[in-house]
Design a protein that fits this description.
By secondary structure, this protein is of the alpha+beta class. It has a single domain, classed as 2-Layer Sandwich (Pantoate--beta-alanine Ligase, Chain: A,domain 2), CATH 3.30.1300. The protein contains 1 helix and 4 strands. The protein has a 4-stranded antiparallel β-sheet, covered by helices on one side. The longest helix is centred in the N-terminal third of the chain and has 49 residues. The protein starts with a helix and ends with a strand.
């Protein structure tokens, strides 16, 4: 009978450890989903800016809500001073969100005329 009780205690400890692992796994999967959404929002804006008329490409900001998370997207556009005749602009897109912790992702690209 004591052997059965010891086996149950060992089994209980192992199951508690697995429960903690499941919580960590769920949080990591959730973070991965948020990171993918943020990267997609940044890429969408970059593609939108690439098809915008040259004189209309300018910095701005907007907000998107997806899966209960608010994503703040800002983009800056800077003419490249090293290249004459205003034929290239550098674009930096930053997406920030908070899922209990503050996170951000940035994309950098250059567009030419």
């Amino acid at each position: 009978m004591i052997e059965v009780l010891v086996a149950l205690v060992i089994l209980s400890i192992a199951l508690l450890a697995l429960a903690g692992l499941m919580v960590t796994t769920t949080k990591n999967n959730s973070f991965g989903n948020h990171m993918t959404e943020a990267a997609t929002f940044a890429q969408d804006k970059l593609e939108e800016l690439r098809v915008t008329e040259w004189v209309d490409i300018a910095g701005n900001a907007d907000t998107t809500v997806s899966s209960g998370i608010t994503y703040n997207r800002t983009w800056t556009v800077v003419p490249t001073p090293a290249i004459p005749n205003d034929i290239m602009k550098e674009i930096t897109i930053t997406v920030t969100w908070n899922d209990g912790l503050d996170h951000s992702i940035s994309l950098f690209s250059a567009v030419t005329r």
